[in-house]
Design brief:
Order of helices and strands of chain B: EEEHEEEEHHHEHEHEEHHEEEEEEEEEE
CATH architecture of the largest domain in chain A: Orthogonal Bundle
CATH architecture of the largest domain in chain B: 3-Layer(aba) Sandwich
Number of strands of chain B: 21
Largest interface: A-B, 22 and 32 residues
Shape of chain A: globular
Radius of gyration of chain A: 25 Å
Order of helices and strands of chain A: HEEHHHHHHHHHHHHHHHHHHHHHHHH
Strand order of the largest sheet of chain B: 7-8-9-3-10-11
Helix content of chain B: 10-25%
Shape of chain B: elongated
Largest sheet of chain B: 6 strands, mixed
Number of helices of chain B: 8
Structural class of chain B: alpha+beta
Oligomer: heterodimer
Strand content of chain A: under 5%
CATH superfamily of the largest domain in chain A: MetI-like
Radius of gyration of chain B: 25 Å
Distance between the termini of chain B: 12 Å
């Protein structure tokens, strides 16, 4: 599943004549869906005037935001926050991945599962739990600390800060995703290289830094660049923690422009397009680097004996376990506590606890509706994603002409375009293209947004699986007299089914907790849990938001665990 | 090939182009053509995989494309079935054009009535043995009852009727091979194509499968186009062999024809073993015999094929001999006397390797070079003993010294 970043050396043997018309129709459809939102943004960016009234074409939108100092600050914050997070998380993740993949750390398979669960911990609910723990003076940790050490002046840890944002990112997806990407790479490394270093009298830590890290450099660079691209697009955590502290990032100022009354669509479009322009160089760099170094990355069948940690075994185990508990169990407990509090985050009251919020929430119809919407969104996205991604991955892998590469390129586009920008672009597309207007305001708009947003990851995973399939399995079907379509459904699809199911479950988990890509689309009757939660948070109703957060967390984590079970049972055992 | 190695040949007509009646060739010589490739070319970008290949596959024969990896044999096979399209040329199946780039004609593989056995067997792991074999019939929408009968018959044919409900992945390599063959035969194809089908089997099983395939082919009378890089496999299995090199067919003919009368150095070296002795032409007799002065210091009369295009005296040349045609005899003393005798080389046994039914003797020749020859087992051989190697003129062939190796 490392294939997200590493293209395989594709086998040259390919199919004869594909169904050309079908193929180009697919390329056209994918191209339209990923590129048109950007085109719509360009068009909107030249419309001057208030939304809903007479508009004229002009350049005003392109001048105004660049005169504001806020934009420069937001850009600076975006970059510094992202780079800081990547530097810290990469260092930590190298150690963790090495411990899990290469040493006799106790229970390492379970710890790996722990990071997998952490990867799917939804950002908004976790952010809220950290607000409870370290939200200024009333944060639980700060209260304890000031009781313990009365001479302290003011809160020690303030989550509403630059470092607060970094911390919450680190303990949600940023570290787990790197562990997830690096562990397989570390597993493929030749153990003899480490052992010879140890035999020369080099210590453990020195071995990792002087031998393991240099060998893994290509993988690490790719992981870091991908991480940087994702980091710059982050939205929810910055919105909740940065706004009270006056810390803007690029995605939040786009959101702010959109949420003004009347919404500044033109300015938001300009901001979105310039945001894409900022991210694009990193994507180009990442792709260029992958192409140059792909061969050094994939290991062969080497000795994979594991390192004995000796006396450090159990202490290191406690550290890793502690980290996982901080990432998963602690936020969950805090959310449960928060949902039973009279006033969210206020621990210094005579009577703290109540069940009123649960009674309210369960009585309220909007929660039920949002839950239904979320399940519809999750199931719809997962189903559509499984069909669409397998078709696209298959076409991109097996078409040998230029179209195959074009299709592959198109599937990387959603990675370039931040969720909030894609949300903005899709909104413009639905509003401006006549036949698509019918979709706006329905669940299909959200499903489409989620499927487009997860396309890069999903297609790359299925593509990796397809590239591992021996081409002769398909060829044997053609020479048996079966058509291409029959071959796809009877041979290819059953063989990659486990990966496709894993992708579907991952998309489901994403759809349940996703905020940025649907935030501008999911309103009124189609509002899913995640957006309802954001709305509660926006209006300061933390208690119902906590209950929703718990629901999202439960759904996302169970589908993540299910995905893991499927992949452990079927995908990994195949190799 | 290193210059110190020698070789022999069987008696045969002086002109190599002629063919002799052959016991192994199919009885019906002018049989009808099932598959015909003419002037096939295949290029990938600037790389020419197949330069110009033409051959005809006749009804009921096994034709093998033999050559080292990268010679274009697999590309040719894949063009024949339609998994690749030719860049130029024409493929005809039963007289019907199925691939002709100039006429923009192409029939995809699923529409050609051919079966194929892949190198990896390509047994679908998500289906049972029965379903694997039934697949080609289902793709042609045959009625269920017919499919059941047909598949049962095919599985019995390859001896797997007891394994019908197993998964493909639960079978051994040889059994998977049989499933692949049964599947290839399922629709009663005109031609069965086999791409290195035995290369993943161990040596013992490979021999057994070769025999089975040949028996099966003889029974069904189906035409088989076979691809391999293994010369002993090609010799054992084929009615005819086409030796390929660098995208071209070097020579095509029956196995014994190719073995006895190779037309090019690469065919000679690829099929069986050859020992080469460098020398210089002394004189030519009117009857075609050539006397050569070997670098070993002895003269040698060559009566076999002459590939030097009647090169004049003093031209450098190579005398080629198959190791089984070198007659070795023990001698008591150092071969001072023997030196004068033509077609005989003196030598000393450096090492004896016991091979069971024979010895392999590593012999040091007069000029210090070594040569390996097999000798029958017996007490007369000992390490350090003196021997004489006799080369009968009829088994010797003459080749030009400057051989283009590429």
């Amino acid at each position: 599943m490392t294939d997200l970043a590493l293209p395989h050396a594709a086998r040259a043997r390919l199919a004869p004549e594909p169904g050309r018309i079908l193929f180009w129709a697919l390329v056209g459809l994918v191209g339209f869906l990923v590129l048109f939102p950007l085109v719509a943004l360009v068009a909107t960016s030249f419309q001057v005037g208030t939304f809903g009234r007479e508009t004229t074409f002009g350049l005003a939108n392109w001048i105004e935001p660049f005169q504001s100092r806020r934009l420069g600050e937001a850009l600076w914050n975006t970059l510094t926050l992202s780079i800081t997070r990547q530097a810290i998380s990469l260092t930590v993740a190298i150690g963790l991945a090495w411990l899990i993949a290469r040493t006799n750390l106790p229970g390492r398979r379970w710890l790996e599962l722990g990071f997998w669960i952490a990867l799917f911990m939804p950002a908004l609910p976790v952010t809220m739990s950290w607000v409870l723990l370290a939200g200024g003076r009333s944060g639980l940790i700060n209260i304890w600390l000031s009781d313990l050490l009365p001479f302290l002046d003011g809160p020690v840890f303030n989550i509403y800060s630059w470092w607060g944002i970094v911390w919450v990112h680190l303990v949600t997806a940023t570290i787990p995703i790197k562990v997830f990407l690096l562990v397989p790479a570390f597993r493929n490394m030749d153990a003899a290289l480490e052992e010879s270093a140890r035999a020369c009298g080099t210590g453990l830590v020195r071995t990792v830094w002087k031998i393991v890290v240099p060998i893994m450099t290509p993988t690490l660079v790719v992981t870091a660049l991908l991480g940087l691209i994702h980091s710059m697009q982050a939205f929810e955590i910055e919105l909740i923690l940065g706004t009270p502290a006056g810390i803007d990032v690029y995605s939040t100022i786009i959101y702010a422009a959109m949420k003004q009354e009347p919404p500044l669509y033109g300015v938001a479009s300009v901001l979105s397009l310039s945001f894409v322009a900022v991210i694009l160089p990193f994507v180009v760099l990442q792709q260029w680097y992958v192409r140059r170094h792909a061969h050094g990355v994939i290991g062969g069948r080497f000795s994979t004996r594991i390192q004995d940690l000796g006396r450090l075994r159990w202490p290191l185990f406690s550290v890793v376990l502690g980290l996982i508990l901080i990432m998963t169990v602690l936020p969950t407990i805090m959310l449960v506590i928060g949902s039973f509090m009279k006033l969210f985050g206020t621990f210094n009251m005579p009577s703290i606890w109540t069940t009123r919020h649960w009674q309210d929430a369960l009585a309220r119809s909007e929660l039920g509706r949002a839950l239904a919407n979320t399940l519809k969104l999750g199931a719809g996205s997962a189903l559509l994603a499984m069909i669409a991604y397998s078709l696209v991955a298959y076409a991109a892998t097996r078409a040998r002409h230029i179209g195959g590469r074009l299709l592959d390129f198109l599937t990387w586009m959603p990675l370039v375009v931040p969720g909030i920008v894609m949300s903005m672009g899709l909104l413009q597309m639905f509003l401006q293209v006549g036949p698509l207007r019918a979709i706006y305001g329905t669940m299909w708009a959200l499903i489409l947004a989620v499927v487009i947003g997860s396309m890069t990851m999903g297609v790359q995973i299925i593509r990796g699986m397809l590239l591992q399939l021996n081409a002769e399995l398909e060829e044997a079907s053609w020479t048996s007299g079966a058509s291409r379509l029959r071959t796809f459904f009877r041979i290819v699809l059953p063989l990659v089914a486990p990966s496709v199911i894993v992708v579907g479950l991952q998309v489901f988990a994403t759809a349940v907790s996703v905020v940025s890509i649907v935030v501008l689309l999911g309103t009124g009757p189609t509002q899913p849990l995640s957006i309802l939660q954001l709305a509660y948070l926006d209006s300061g109703k933390f208690e119902p938001a906590t209950i929703i957060g718990l629901l999202i967390l439960a759904i996302a984590v169970s589908s993540a665990v299910l995905a893991r079970a499927v992949s452990d049972r079927f995908v990994l055992s195949k190799g | 090939m290193p210059p110190h190695l020698v070789s022999v040949d069987r008696p045969g007509p002086g002109n190599p182009g002629e063919t002799m009646p052959d016991a192994l060739a199919p009885a019906s010589r002018p049989a009808e053509t099932v598959l015909a490739l003419s002037h096939i070319q295949k290029t990938y970008g600037s790389f020419k995989a197949v330069s110009d290949v033409s051959f005809e596959l006749r009804k009921g024969e096994i034709l093998t494309l033999l050559g080292p990896s990268g010679c274009g044999k697999t590309s040719t096979l894949r063009i024949a079935i339609g998994l690749e399209r030719a860049t130029a040329g024409e493929v005809r199946l039963d007289g019907r054009i199925v691939d002709a780039p100039r006429e923009r004609t192409f029939l995809p593989p699923e529409k050609r009535n051919m079966g194929m056995v892949f190198q990896s067997y390509a047994i679908w792991p998500h289906m049972s043995v029965f379903e694997n074999v039934a697949y080609p019939l289902r793709a042609r929408r045959r009625p269920a009852a017919e499919i059941r009968d047909e598949v049962t018959k095919l599985l019995r044919l390859v001896g797997l009727e007891a394994f019908a409900e197993r998964r493909g992945t639960q079978l051994s390599g040889g059994q998977q091979q049989r499933v692949a063959i049964a599947r290839g035969l399922a629709v009663g194809p005109d031609v069965l194509l086999m791409d290195e089908p035995f290369s993943n089997l161990d040596a013992r099983l490979r021999n057994q499968m070769r025999a089975e395939v040949k028996v099966l082919q003889r029974r069904l009378g189906i035409a088989v186009l076979f691809v391999t890089h293994d010369q002993s496999e090609a010799l054992a299995l084929s009615d005819r062999i086409a030796v390929m090199r660098a995208g071209n067919i070097e020579q095509i003919g029956s196995p014994s024809e190719l073995y006895r009368y190779p037309q090019t150095p690469s065919v000679r070296d690829f099929l069986g073993e050859t020992r080469l002795l460098p020398g210089r032409i002394l004189k030519r007799e009117p009857d075609g015999r050539v006397t050569v002065e070997l670098d070993q210091g002895v003269t040698c009369v060559v009566a076999g094929s002459d590939h030097t295009r009647s090169a004049p005296a003093h031209t450098k040349c190579l005398v080629a001999v198959r190791p089984e045609h070198i007659h070795v005899e023990p001698v008591a003393t150092k071969p001072h006397v023997a030196q004068s005798e033509p077609n005989a080389l003196g030598g000393e046994i450096l090492a004896l390797l016991f091979m069971g039914n024979c010895y392999e003797a590593s012999i040091k020749l007069a000029d210090g070079t070594a040569m390996n020859v097999t000798v029958p087992p017996g007490p007369e051989w000992r390490e350090g003993g003196q021997v004489r190697l006799r080369l009968s003129p009829e088994h010797l062939q003459l080749w030009p010294a400057a051989e283009a190796k590429a």
